[in-house]
Design brief:
Layout (H helix, E strand, L loop, with lengths): L1 E2 L6 E2 L5 E2 L5 E2 L1 H7 E3 L6 E3 L4 E3 L2 E3 L1 H7 L25 E6 L15 E4 L8 E4 L4 H17 L9 E7 L5 H13 L1 H5 L4 H4 L11 H5 L4 H6 L7 E2 L2 H5 L1 E8 L4 H29 L5 H11 L3 H15 L5
Antiparallel strand pairs: 1-2, 3-4, 5-6, 7-8, 9-11, 9-12, 10-11, 12-14, 13-14
Helix pairs in contact: 3-10, 4-10, 10-11, 11-12
Length: 319
């Protein structure tokens, strides 16, 4: 048992939250003193935050948000068509750039927003919530624009995708989280080793036991590190899980394949449940499990595509 440093209440250590000053607080005091920036997720003193468009931001994000380069998507009006995208799960895409000439031509684009990011030399382009075949078309469209206008990415850039968890019951989310913890090495084999080493997509601190014990996803996710490769913190901010492992890209096929691979995998895990995921992945050949999942969903091209990427980056396919 430990004391809250503000009110002095005695609580079990696992019930206390760490503050900016490296001391522990009870949940109530922590919530009164601190908050997470609603853009970057940084822990801040509430007194030092600014409100912008109904979101509370840290000083850095507030400065970026009020810059002329920042705008928000205003709406995706896609059709409910799923011939090429085999999942009904909604998704979002964040494309970081090193250079983005003529990006101002997208200012009136309803589907894509733009924001500054101190970790990159270009700008970050953020989609509205997408779905179905038309969502994939929007990815190809901005990538065609980017290549036509000479955009580029470098090793500081990342590609982040969000997959919707809003309507998922807690037990299905736990099964999805378990599936990701058990398959990190496989997903990591598909990306450049330099990206795997990035502090912006670190391995997860949460353990399988931590996931199994989750009773409240809002509470659990609010205390996770947003810079982990599978970002559970995104749930408390966006109602999604964010995958941050992929390096920056303006290649439409590469991004569409990544979105599709994860959407199909999440659907499989949610339907398999905790025991089904655990049993299926109780093998040394977890690559084959992913390959079978994609094949069963009709995504045979993904198997060849990621087999080749694994060969390129690791010399094998994890079994």
């Amino acid at each position: 048992m430990l004391c809250c440093s503000d009110c002095g209440r005695l609580l079990p250590a696992k019930s206390l939250h760490l503050g900016l000053n490296r001391v522990l607080y009870c949940p109530e005091c922590w919530g009164e003193i601190f908050a997470l920036c609603e853009h970057c997720g940084a822990l801040c003193y509430r007194a030092g935050m600014q409100c912008y468009q109904d979101a509370w931001l840290c000083c850095c994000c507030y400065a970026a948000a009020t810059d002329d380069a920042w705008w928000h998507p205003t709406g995706f009006k896609g059709r409910q068509v799923y011939f090429n995208f085999p999942s009904r799960r909604r998704f979002g895409v964040e494309i970081e750039t090193a250079r983005c000439p003529d990006y101002e031509d997208l200012t009136d684009d309803a589907v894509w927003g733009c924001k500054s990011d101190a970790s990159i030399t270009g700008l970050e382009f953020v989609s509205d919530i997408l779905f179905g075949d038309d969502g994939l078309i929007e990815i190809y469209r901005i990538c065609d624009f980017a290549q036509k206008h000479g955009w580029s990415v470098d090793r500081r850039c990342g590609l982040h995708i969000h997959l919707d968890m809003w309507d998922e019951p807690s037990d299905r989310m736990q099964a999805i989280a378990l599936a990701y913890l058990l398959t990190y090495e496989v997903w990591a084999s598909f990306v450049d080793p330099v990206r795997r080493a990035s502090t912006y997509c670190k391995p997860c601190r949460a353990t399988i036991d931590d996931i199994a014990e989750i009773e409240n996803w809002d509470n659990f996710s609010s205390h996770q590190d947003r810079h982990e490769w599978i970002n559970f913190h995104a749930f408390c901010r966006h109602g999604s899980f964010e995958v941050r492992l992929h390096p920056g890209s303006i290649d439409g096929k590469e991004i569409v394949n990544w979105v599709t691979a994860h959407a199909v995998f999440m659907d499989w895990a949610a339907n398999a449940g905790w025991d089904g995921v655990k049993n299926a992945l109780d093998t040394d050949d977890r690559w084959k499990v992913l390959a079978d999942i994609w094949q069963d969903a009709g995504c045979h091209d993904l198997v060849d595509y990621y087999h080749q990427r694994s060969l390129n980056f690791c010399g094998d396919t994890n079994g």
